[in-house]
Write a structure and sequence with these properties.
Blueprint: H1 17-23, H2 36-47, H3 57-64, H4 72-79, H5 88-99, H6 102-113, H7 123-136, H8 144-152, H9 157-167, H10 176-194, H11 207-210, H12 214-231, E1 263-265, E2 272-274
Helix pairs in contact: 6-7, 7-10
Amino acid sequence: MQSLFPLFSRRNLSLKHGLLNLVSSKQFYGHDKEDPHAHIRWFNKITSTMRYPNVQNTSIKLMLFPFSIEGAARIWLKKEPPRSILTWEDLVSKFINQFFPPSKMTNLCNEITNFQKRFDESFCEACDRFKDLLRACPHHGFMELHQLDTFYNAINPTDQDSLNAAAGGNFLDKMPRDCLRITESKSKVCNSRNKPVISRVSTNTSSTNITQFPEVVALTDAVKDLLRQNKTPTPAFVKAVKDSCVTCGGQHPYYNCTTTDGIAFKDNIQEYVSAV
């Protein structure tokens, strides 16, 4: 960035670390969706109050601006010929022409002219989107009356009737400043209504409140029944074992078997004695 620094070759300026952090906290990269006009407005705002003894504010801006850009924007600045940027106005002009060419301005002007409220868009959302287009193209050249006419004809009949009612007649017959005031007022009301209402659920909700919902009560009872069934074990059925003779297979103890023919077995079937 040698093209920016010849003006400071004889100046002894010391930039504080905190100041550099502030300037580089919102860097411009040169992406298609970025707005170079917005970056210049932001940069002018944070540098407008900076003062150095015997140094013009525009000279301070020239020194600090390289710290506010990165990526494609920094590459562009490095490629600028030496001493091609000698004033703050030179820098702003080249910066805008590079990242906001005439073709982009033409496209934005066409978007403004052909603006239409979307089907799923609220009034305040459409209003904000229209204002964003105007801010992104500050040199659009449209007068306030033309802007109001474009926006009015872009919204649906219900919103048009609402504006006419607030104006006490034809909305576009009012002075532009009155139309802007009415539009801003309606947009604020719409925005406040669209904000989601989040209520805090108390962990100590009483059973009285729960009983107001039959579905919840039925589901709660069903869960309780399932838990109760799981806690109570199912009784096991034990089948009685009948005596069976190991000798003949009959339904009697072995020691009562008549087929042993005089041989008596003890309880321990592995031992037997002959009857005397």
